Amino acid sequence: MSTKTELLQELFPEDILKVSSQLTEGEVKFLKQLDDLLESKYREGINQHWVDATVPEGFFEDMGKLNYFSNPLLFEGREGAKMPSHLYQFFFSYVLARFDVSLVTLLGVHQGLGHNSFLFGGSKEQVAHYIPKLQSHELRTCFALTEPNHGSDVAGGLETTARRDGDKWILNGAKRWIGGATVADVIPVYAVDVETGKPKGFIVRPDQEGVTMDVIQNKIALRIVPNANIQLKDVVVEEADRLQNINGFKDIAKVLYSTRAGVSYMATGALAGALRATTKYVNERKQFGKEISNYQLVQEKLAMMQGNLTHAIALNAQLARMQEEGDYDEVATSTAKMMNSLRLRESVAMGRGLAGGNGIVVDYDIARFFSDAEAVYTYEGTHEVNALVIGRSITGKSAFV
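The structure corresponding to this sequence follows.
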């Protein structure tokens, strides 16, 4: 049986600072199972799924069977812990994103934004009912916040309304870019209470009367993710299906801040995937009589990609340490998301350039990472919005409006 050191070398040879050595033996074994599953079952068809904009059959079920929230391996040597470690959560997202950014995004919406909407926003009864089902994938969820006319300004710009009528609420409005909505069983929908002007959260089911959806077509990135438009016309939601602890945007912000680190993790894994794909390509591609990996200019770009990746891993490691201690600092998470997605965008451009014309053909993997990096750069807070969060901290002045 392979030792922890051997498994780490096989799993993370690009981790030159050996951050992954801080993972427990059980966590490493679990991540090896995840990597083996992705490579053995999904590698062959992943590019075609990206082209066809289809979710690989069985992916959600396989993730549920892995039990990535509460697998006993994740708690070996961590007796008494209630949640997997944050360092594990980083490398879990990293392994998925290194394989494919769409799959980690689809799962991240479920396990992050969607799951945490119930965890942070639900009553004790709602948490007890929904969280075990969401963690096991018995139920699928997503996160319906953004709208056709509101993305970065949702804190004060939601147009979807909720009007109370006795023990019921009537929802009207539209949501856009809702990843995974068409495969969800329960959808946390955020709408403004017309009486108070404050946003609230509601549990909506796709088959309810008044709910219609269509999948956004012609995307150049994250093509595997079914992003949906949702129309809500006089949708009736019982008071019992209102997320009881969502009573203002500060409550929604807790969900967003808790998952922003995850996008930084995804960006870092995607950078590692781009580096792997590029390295494979330059070691096989011959020009002027030898593999192009022999040339100085090629090696310099690979070194820059490795350097960007190393910075990103180190930043995430510290972020994970902070969050392990309960410090979910919005400036720290915004810095990590902003910088790691920027370094990803820079790195995939270098990889695509090294592949020449083949860099725009999906068959070589590089084009998939190149395209998907554009989505990572702007989702879960654009580069500019995260910069303004940081700028506000530096100056003490808000420049959002």
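Residues 154-248 form a domain with the Butyryl-CoA Dehydrogenase, subunit A; domain 2 fold (CATH 2.40.110.10).
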